[in-house]
Amino acid sequence: MLSGLLNHSTKAPPMKVSQNAIDQEWEDVKAAQKNAAAFRPLYERYYEQIFRFVYRRTAEEALTADICSQVFLKAMQKIKTYTFRGVPFSAWLYRIANNEITQHYRHAKKSRVVSIQEIQLEEMTDEIDNFDYEKQRNNLLNALNNLSESDMQIIELRFFEQHSFKEVGQILNITENNAKTRTYRALEKIKRHVLMY
Amino acid sequence: MKKDYNIKINNSEPSSEQIAAHKDFDTLLSAHGGGTGTAEVVGGMGKIAKLSIGAFLTGAAALIMLLFAPGLLKNNTGDDLAERKISPPIKQVRKAFASYKVNAHQGGVYAYGNGSKITVPPHAFTYEDGSEVTGDVDLKYREFHDFVDFFLSGIPMEYDSAGQVFQLESAGMMEIYAEQNGQALRINSGKDIDIELASEIALDGNESAYNLYRFFNGKNPTQDDINAQAHSHKTNVSSKANWSYEGKSQLEIIPDNKELTGEKIESKELAQIKKLERNIDREEKRLLAVAGNDLPPVVSEMAKPKAPQAPNPNGYVFDFEVNKTRFPELATYENVLWQVVEGQPFDENYYNVNWADVEIRKKTDDVYNVTLTSENEQVDLDVTPVLSGKDYRKAQEEFDQKMVVYSGQFAERQEKVNEQRNAIKRRMNAQRAELDAQKADATARIAELKKQGRNGEATNMMVTRKVMNNFAIRDFGIWNVDRPLPPFEQIFVGNFCDEKEKMYKGNPVYIVNKTNNTVGRFYATKRNQIRINKTTENLMWLVTDDGKLAIFSQEQFNNLIPKKEHTFAMVTVLQSIENEEDVRKILKL
Q: Which of B144, B246, B304, B451 could serve as B149's disulfide partner, Cβ 3.0–4.6 Å?
């Protein structure tokens, strides 16, 4: 039985950006909104992060570099529409990256890569009561493979990327509460699948 | 719904150094088109307002400009710059500006009424000193579409490109500025204002030649203007230039719901040909989809032989009797064993249980579901059939033989299917070739008609369509969507006089070609040289000293002889001019 999910954080520490840093970043964004060249600090700050985000979903370096270029180009083109909402600017970049990845796989006609570290997989199962990781690992992988794209995104962002529910909400353009609810439901589906076998 | 991901466990990622090697902000900035922060319309990468589909222009047709040959337009006033300045000929008749109240902090979207739109972003205005404007701003906007609009605006439509002068054929022009309490404002750097300029033009297949230009307002451009243009467009800018090239136009043809939508229609006839081509494409797709359906199903996926499987040494395997009547595919194999599909829970004690009942159901081609029932429990397992030892070897030999037969039959059938497909394609290609010939013929006829000056007939073959020009501006002023026109070949030389044979001197003269819809401007002097296409319908007029219009009609043009010096006897229209409507009545073609 899943218990206490909404009150407990995952064992892996969530990414933290101080409010001061977020406020200062908004000044950088405003500068970039006026002058495209001023986007450089944001590009330098988040390039590696976005690259890794994309790479985990493609596992191809050259393809990842191409998608990253598209992500930052779109960000520069659309930055004037960006409004400050108290979360790191990176959440918006992740959303653009997510969309670019979806677009890529829509045309590529191949299976989307999901990159998981073993330890993250194990930590995820802390949320499932009576789960014997050694015995049920394969079932867990099968269960993940049966998730819909939207459920997989939630699981990836929450457990494999270790974003807060607030950041998950920003990236997927849903509310924080919705992010929590959908995470809970995705885990329930995983649990049901695991216990079936 | 099962998604089937490519799950990678503990996949290694590139190092930070490897990732850093992919960074290239300078290239990104170039692709964005900014350098100083503005997203210009450059090669399709710039910021462009989206088309508002369904917006229609009410009223005037597109304007076309008469071309004067470079170097042949005499310096009529002795002041070359005068000819390049804005000079409204009838001061009491000016096109009114639409006025919008804009909150500088918020911006907004403003409709012009004919479908055009102006999108102002927040914080879009500054004073001359660069400080940001707050409060309300008066935004002024007006458009020019046809030769009467251009005539009354006094805006010259010549374009100087590296010393070569062209006349501009417009697909819509607008003027925009903003002020606050009478003080002129500027557009804030990086806060481009998006324009959707609705217009209407005659389509002739050369719509891609339209560009965006900005007017220098009669002043010679500054050295900064020249340097900026040369840098961004890599062209030389003449010091006498009055229009600045600002990039390719993003001109969108608005679909006509009554005709084909989403298509660039070059002529009614060509449109019909394109429709037939699309029908051929559809028919080909349909026929290809059913190709081979009429062939006997000698082979199919179901008939394809199944390869025997050997058991996984680490898996759980058991056997029981199978009703081979019910599962004929298993009749092929004797001594079939059943292997539990990996990942399922399986208790080795099951081997020791005396099962009362066994039920088997087929799930997929390779997987069966077995239900084992005993007195105390019931177990559901997914299993696959496997063989071992000599049974496997025998089954493998049989499979190999069957595959040979199957492969041969499959290849034979594929060959027949391909023959059918090729025949379909040949038939369709022949139809397309016939239509291509018709299209080439229609296009050639249109071109010939235009060459003969029978532009009216050519125009009738052409379709006039509503268009939307989408661009972003970084400066207030006059912006124009045009394409440069090549000069006409016929040269006429002459002087201008009134009914009393008194010569006109210094009066502005205008000339319009109806079918090409152009307007040119020059100033009356001795031995003016003008280029027109005499076989088309033309109208020429000048503005008299007392603000009336004096006309030189098409009938008079018909009597002209090229290169012979003429006296253009202008006929004054005595009607007073109070408004634009008066001008249109006088200048109707």
A: B144
- The residue among A83, A108, A133 that closes a domain is A108
> Does A96 lie in the same domain as A127?
no
Domain count for chain A, please give it: 2
pLDDT exceeds 70 at position B460: no
Residues A82 and A137 in one domain: no
Show which of residues 161-190 on chain A sit within 8 Å of chain B, judged by CB atoms: none
Q: Which of A40, A59, A145 sits opposite B11 (nearest CB)?
A: A59
Of residues A35, A115, A118, nearest to B36 (C-beta)? A35
**B95 touching chain A per CB within 8 A:** no
What percent of chain B is modeled with pLDDT above 70?
Answer: 74
The answer to whether position A39 is within a domain reads yes
**pLDDT band of A127, cuts 50, 70, 90:** low
Residue-range definition of the domain harbouring residue A126: 118-196
pLDDT band with cut points at 50, 70 and 90 for residue B507: very high
If 0-12 CB within 10 Å is exposed, 13-18 middle and 19+ buried, where does residue B444 land?
Answer: exposed
* Number of Cβ within a 10 Å radius of residue B260: 15
Q: Would you call A121 an interface residue with chain B, using a CB distance cutoff of 8 Å?
A: yes
Q: Which residue has the higher pLDDT, B268 or B497?
A: B497
How would you write B206-253 as a 3-class SS string? CHHHCEEEEECCCCCCCHHHHHHHHHHHCCCCCCCCCEEEEEECEEEE
> What pLDDT is stored for residue B160 in this prediction?
66
Categorize the per-residue pLDDT at B76 as very low, low, confident or very high, splitting at 50, 70 and 90: very low
CB contact under 8 A, A148 and B344: no
Check whether residue A129 and residue A189 sit in a common domain: yes
Q: How many CB atoms lie within 10 A of CB B570?
A: 24
Q: Which CATH superfamily is domain B487-586 in?
A: Carboxypeptidase-like, regulatory domain (2.60.40.1120)
The residue with tokens 């080439």 is: B440
